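Bench log, entry 3. Co-assembly request; chain sequences pasted below exactly as received.
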Amino acid sequence: MLEVKNLEVAYGRVNAVKGISFTVDKGQIVSLLGANGAGKSTTLRTISGLLKPIAGEIWFEGERIDGIGAHKIVERGIAQSPEGRRLFRNMSVEDNLKLGAFSRKDLSGVKSDMERVYDLFPVLSERRTEAAGLFSGGEQQMLAIGRAMMSRPKLLMLDEPSMGLSPIMTQTIMDTIRGLQSEGVTILLVEQNAQAALSLAHKGYVLEVGQIMFSDTGAALLGDDRVRRAYLGAD
Amino acid sequence: MNAIIPSEHKIRFRFVGRGTGITAAVLMIASIMLPWAYTGAALDDVSYWASPSPLQIYFAILAGLLLVLLAVPLVGKERLGKYAKLVAWNSAAKVAAVTSTVMAAVALISIALELGGLINVMIGAWLALGGAVLSIIATRYLPDSPEPRLEDVASPRWLQILAVAVIMAAGLFAAATALGYDDAGSFLTFAAFLAGVILVLKSFGFFDWLSIAGAANNRVLVLSAFAVAFAFPFTQNGSDANMSIASQVLIFAATALGLNIVVGLVGLLDLGYIAFLGAGAFTAAILSESAYSTVNWHPPFIVTVLISGTVAATLGLIIGAPTLRVSGDYLAIVTLAFGEIFRITMINLDGNDGPNLTHGSNGIPAIPDLNFLGFDFGVSHVILGVDIGRFANYYWLMLILLAIIIVVFTNLNHSRIGRGWVAIREDELAAEAMGVNTFLLKLLAFAGGAFLAGLAGAVKAHHDVSVTPDQYIFLESAFLLSAVVLGGMGTVLGVLIGATILKLLPEKLRFFSDYRLLAFGLLMVIMMRFRPEGIIADRRRALEFHDKNEELAEEVEEELITHHAHLNPDPKGFEL
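Structure output for the full assembly:
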C-alpha cells in the first residue's frame, strides 16, 4: 500500500534520513522504532508532504506522491497525528474535528464520522464545545487521533501517541489503535515506547541515525536481543 | 489597595464603611446644586446655584449608582434572595467610587485649565471630588463580592429585548451627546462618565447577562444596532462637522474590518494595509468625472466601486503570491515596504517620472459628488423636519457598505474557510498536516481583505473630494492596525469600537494633537499589559493570552476528578 524507496531528507546540510526503504501492507500495523534523532518523525513528515525529500521515492496505492503538496496527500487518504499532538488548543473539540475533515466535501459523512469519534472517545463527546487546550494529555491524544481519523484515511500515521502519557493511558491508546486496525485502517506507528509498539505491530523497523538497522515481525523484534538491550532495558 | 486593609478590619468596619460611603454619595449628589466654576465659560456652564448643567447631572447619575449599590444590600440577604449572591454589589460600588473620582477630577482639572487656575474652581467641584475620594476610602472597607453570575438568572424574553433596545438607544444618545461637545474638557468629562457607567455595569455583572440576552436574540440585536446607526444623522440636526467625523469613522472601520481578516483571523502581520484603501481611492478618482481625471472613461459608480475593489485585490495578489510562502516576520517587512512603494509610485505617476495618472503629489482634486441612480449625494434634504446634509448621505452609503462587509466577514468567519484561517493562525504546520491548503487560503485572505479596503477607498475618494498620495502614509497603516488590536482581533464589535475610538478622539482632542502619538503609544502599552486581547475579546484569543486561565482550569479539573472519585468510588476509566 505504501512503499518508501531510498528516501533521503535533509535539514539544510544535515541529512536526517539517509536512504531508507520500507513498505506498509494494507490492514497492517507497522512500527518505526528508534531513539531521538533517528529520523522517525522526519520520515513521517516527508510522507505527509510537510517536508520535501532530496532523493528517493514514495509510492501510495500505485501512485507516486512525494512532492505533490500536503493537502493533496490528505485527499489521497493519508492522515497524520503529529508529534506532540499539535491540537488547535484554543479551538473547541468540535472545531478540531471539523478541521481534521477539512479536505472532505461530504457534510453528512463528516457528521456521521464525528459521531463515530465521539462513540470511540466518550470523554470528547461530553465536552465537545470546550477548548482543546483545557484537556488532559491523554484526552488530547484521543482528540489528536480522532482528528486524524476525520479525513477517513486509508493510512493513519501516528507520531509518538504515548508521549507524556501514564502507563494506563498508554494502554488505552494502544487498545484504541488495535481497534482501528481491526476496523480496516492501516497504521504506521512511530514510537519510542518499543514494548507498547512492538506488541501491536505486525512488522517493525528499527532506525538509527537516519538508517534502518534491521527489521522483522513485531513479535520477533520483541524477542530480539539487540532490541531488548537497546530499547527494552534488558541486560 | 485591597491588601492594605486586613480582612478582620473589613468585618469590623463594614457598617461604618457602608454608612460613610452612603454619606459620601449623598454629598456628591448634593454638590451639583452648588456652583463648580466661577464663570460660565468652563464645561457646559457649571457656575449656577441650584441649577445643575447636564454634565453635573451625569455626575449625579454616577453618584446615584454608587448610592443604590451601597444602599440596596441594607435591605438584607433574605429579601434580596438570589440577587444577594448573583450580582456583585460591593465590587460594583468600589468601581463606582473610583470612576466618579476620575470624573470629578477630570471636571475639576478642565475647569482649572479652561478658566486659568484653580482659583476659578468653586466649592461644588471640591465637594464632588472630596465626596468621591471619601467614597473610595469607605468602599475599601467593604468585603469583596463573589464573581457576578447574573447570566444565571432566567429572564423573560421581553425583558431581554427591552434591555437590548434600551442599550442601543443609550448608545445612540451617548454618541450624539459626545459628538455634541466641542470643547475638550466637556468631551473628556462626558467620556469619563460613560466609561464609569460602563465599568460599573460590567463589574456588577450586567454585560455578562446582556451578552447572553443578546446572543439569544441575535436578530433583534443586529437589527436594532443597524436601526440606531441609521437613525444617528437625525440627532445631529444638519451638523456637517459631526456627520463628517461619523462617516470618516465608518470608512476607517470598513478598512479595519478588511485588515481584521488578515491580522485577526489568519494572523498575518500587514504593515502597509493603507495602500489598498489608497488603491481603491485612486482608482475611483481616476474613473470619476473630475476635471483632473486622467482617463477618458467614466463608468457609473456601481461599476467603479467594483473595479476599485478588484484593483486593490489584484495588488493584494501581486504582493501576496511571492511573500506568503515566507514566515510572518518577513511578510511584515515586505508589506511595510509595499505601503511606501505604493505611495511613492502614486507621487511618481505625474507625467515626468512616469505616465501621468495621478498628477503626482497634487493628486486628483474636485472629485464630484456621487450620483447614484439619480440620487445626488451632494444635495441636502429635509427629512422629518431634520436637515440631512451631504455627509449624512455618505454616512448612510457607508453604513450599507459596512453592513455588507460585516455580513461577509461573519459568514466567512464561521465557514469552512474561516476555520482554516484560524487553524493557520494557531498552528500552520498542523493545519497543513490536516489538509488545509495554507498558501491558497492565506492568499485568499490577503486578496479578500484588500478587496474590502478597495470598496471603502472608492467611497472615500468622493467623500473627501480630493485624493492625494500623502493621505496614505505608514502612520495610517499603523492606526488601522492599532484599531484592530485595541478593539479585539478577530471580532467585529471590537474593531468597530477600536476604529471609533481611534478616529473620534483625535477629532475631539485637537489641542492634544502634538502629543497624539505619545498618547496612543501609552494607550497601546497599557492595553498590552492589562488586556492584550483587546476591548472585546475573541473567545479563542482570550485563551491564547491568559495561560493562567488554563492552569486554573486544570486545577478545577483535578479537583473535579478527586471529587468525582470520592462520590463514585468505582470510576470507569478517565471519564468525567
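Residues 89-115 of chain B form the longest helix (27 residues). Residues 562-576 of chain B have pLDDT under 50 and may be disordered.
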